[in-house]
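Extended Data, panel c. Modelled sequence:
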Amino acid sequence: KMNKVFASSALAIAASVSLNAFAQSNEEPVTQLEPIIVSAGISPVAADQYGRSYTVITRRDIEERGYATVQQALEAQPGISINGDAPSNQQIRIRGGEGRHTLVLIDGIRAAAGDGGFLSGYILRGLDSSNIERIEIIRGPQSVPFGTDAASGVVNIVTREAGEGWEYGGAVQVGEGNRQNAYLSHGDGSSRFSMSISNLNDRGYDYSGGGGDRDGRKIGTVSAKGELDLLDHTALGFSFRATDADYDFDTDDDSATDVAGYVVDAAFRTNLSERSGSVYLDHAAVEGRVDHRLRFDRTTQKEDTVAKFGPSSSDLITQVVTYRLQVAADGESTQDSDQLFSLLVERREDENRDGEGTRENNSIALEYRGWLTDNASMQAGLRRDDNSAFINETTWNLSGSYFVGKGTRVHASAGRSVVNPEFFTSSSNPDLIPEKNIGYDIGIETPFPAKSGTLDFTYFNEKLEDKIFFETPTSVTALNAQSNSNRQGIELSVFLKPVELLELTLNYTLMDATNSDGEIEIRRPRNEIGINTTWRLPNGATTLSGDLRYVRGLYDQKFWEDGDPREKLPNFTVVNLLASHSLTDHIDLTARITNAFDEDYQEVWGYATRGRAGYVGVRASW
């Protein structure tokens, strides 16, 4: 299997310098030759075997580039659109899909409870990134392993993993508000445990742009996870997260006649409480060739809001019980198998405690992943969902990876996924049917000569059937579109290391997304470029980093004009800068400037964005 081993090493080198996989430390990248695993599918997949398009943002990326929140880390990644009217109201759209078509997981647990919200999916409010191990982005239809929420892709946020022995540390940052975080972990031969706390107090800015009161955010999170080996082949694990948030926001004025008067200063506020937890029991049998896992997840979201139409509240719960069976057909352990079969049996219950009901979904899924030859691998899956409120659905996916020589890899995938109507939309129209997304992609990943970098180019094409929409913003009845919504485009990632201490990363997305009427979809830029430069000074202690985000061809609706026309927003470029310096082996000083050139731009018509802001901090770890 010489080709496979060579390709794995080439991918490991490329991945350790932050293109499409994660590094485990700050050591020199070329020394990192461990296998790369992506937590995708019913079972984790080695990167050289995975046929789907993915990106992994590492802890090293987060620290060197100064990403304070998850949404900052996701901005300008290939195929990803992060957009909203405020930092406390950001949606994730993958490949031009809807926000509700992206499934967000935190340590494998659904971040959104109930049915994901009112045509929105999980809303990013300011998830702190300081204690994240990595963020995995998996593109394309993903219903087979993840269920009906994952129509266009998945974002899986993995919190800090426990290493050997005790590890602890924290950070403090001040500027336009303040951040504090701390972590503690311990691992030995039979147990692993980690916990973290974070607090964000953002002074904010006036969303209306008119010089009114600042719209701030306060977000606190406590999380923990662990695993204990009960017997030689049996482990018990858990994960828990609690987040409480308060944030202010402004509102639109229905009587406005121009963009300047559309958003007005207001003292509106939301209180949010999120709780999620998981417990699992894992047992390996037949000398590790068979693995059983029983798991229970629970997510709750409670929200109280005071807005222009008065107070409102929501109380959502999701509970999931899963049983996973894995069988290695080649005599190896399930972790090392090149011929692995998996069975997933799942029962999910979504509840809206505000009187909109309860839904149950029973699923069974089969998945195969394996090497067909030394050069070619394949993953295939099939899932059947039996839903208490909607027609039963069958989803599927197929992907493959083929090495053509010298580390160059061709990857391709296709799949079908579904998204069920939400509680609110289905109560407005009982005849609504689920949305279906069918798509495929094909790409090539290749290293540059002399290990100086890598390139990944992917073309994708997806079609959304039966899209759910409201004819106007004031409409109370949801409808299924009679024609398809189409999306296609390209995703490009380039990593270069021209000299030993300098790294350059370029991400580019070209998006062509239209709705069922052939109109350009709003809030999906046609062109988005992300460029990062990281320079490690010869002294070995100082790192300078800069991020540039360029957006062109972003459309939104002008709701103050008759007919709510779609019109292109002005193009914009935002630059962020970071400097860090190691005082000792354990203490770093950081300085960060966001929107360094004070770009005046909008991502949603009428809503202001933040101007230049500066932050300084200290980070420690032992």
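The chain has five helices and 35 strands. This feature is highlighted in the accompanying rendering.
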